[in-house]
Amino acid sequence: MDGTLVMAGGALALSAAGIAESWWHNHNLHKIPVRIHVNGTRGKSSVTRLIAAGLRAGGIRTCAKTTGTVPRMIFPDGSEAAVFRPSRANVIEQRRVVRAAARLGAEALVVECMALQPQLQSLCELQLIQSTHGVITNARADHLDVMGPDVRGVAQALSGTVPVGGTMYTAEQRQIPRDVIAAAAKDRGSKMVSILDDSVAEVTWDELAGFSHIEHPDNLALALRICSDLGVDRQTALRGMWAADADPGVMRLYRIADPEREMVFVNGFAANDPESTGHSWNTLFDRYEKVERRIALFNCREDRIDRSLQLADACVRWRPADHYILSGTGTETFARRAIQKGLSKDRLTCAEHQPAARIVELMQGQSGRSSMVMGMGNIAGPGMDLLNYFQHAQDSGRCETREPQLQEAA
């Protein structure tokens, strides 16, 4: 009997503690008037940083938290620190983020969704963030084992972070996933705002050139619209975004110039699914329309044959590169499939097992007077070696990480 009473007392104590913790969390949440929950397949970390930087520039005291390559807490002065995790990642850490933002007197909190399981995405929104503004950057065919079986399923899972009675933003262009998000917004009583092609087209190359890394125009259009709706004008928001630190996982560019040629190498290894990779390639293709040559570098892995086949199938539907270089291992699989799909073998160079310095020589041999090279596929092996090569070149002053003024093609 005594043991039963002790157990009952312990349960009551735990229940009381849980109620108190929930009360304090809600108290902290409502001390922050603007709460923005950022979700999507690609671009979450970048959009989180862009929105926070734009709001800070507009005089809104803003905290942010990203989950991407390296989880970071970003403070109202723009400084940041790594998020401490005593063990594995757990969505409950969002409570600590909210508590810290409330203590700092934040007027706005921009949080990247850290959940993958659909039910956890909904829990993060309804219990932990309770956003006033929701963001879904896009819904693409990724993590289909968890959120699938198709893009509709991905959109349904991501829609778990739609706010209740707030405003929902998305830069997804396709009708089916956009309709799914709109239905979720209607169900939760939120206003739906779609950033469509006409808004993306308003983003100029000069605005994109203000970044020290490659920023996608749809991400920028999305962030600018949210900042505008919260009272920050476009130029003020842009100045803040240009000055802010980028996420470690962004697409970075490296520029190597000599009297005979100028080459820009873009690290696009992070976007490894075919849809995101193709979107990035087509964006860069248009952005660097004045270069003489545009070169696609695919880093292959023989233990990732499925990815090689998917990229080989997809790349023939993208805007055509002037040349294709295959590095890493298992390149023959990629080459055979791409040729079957219609790619001319004369435009393919296989650099199986070649070191980074040799791959750079092959790039330069295809470059003409000016070129843009995008690295894609897998970062392992030669991919990482190439990044180390360009980082060393930057450290030694042989290359820069700024937007170039490239020579026009003849």
TrEMBL record:
- Domain of life, source organism: Bacteria
Q: What is this protein called?
A: Capsule biosynthesis protein CapB
Gene Ontology MF terms: acid-amino acid ligase activity; ATP binding
Q: Which NCBIfam families match?
A: poly_gGlu_PgsB
Q: Which organism is it from?
A: Rosistilla carotiformis
Family matches, as InterPro entries? Capsule_biosynth_CapB, Mur-like_cat_sf, Mur_ligase_cen, MurCDEF_pg_biosynth
One Pfam family here: Mur_ligase_M
Task: Kindly list the GO CC terms recorded for this protein.
Answer: membrane
**GO BP term, example:** capsule polysaccharide biosynthetic process
Domain Mur ligase central as annotated: residue spans = 38-147
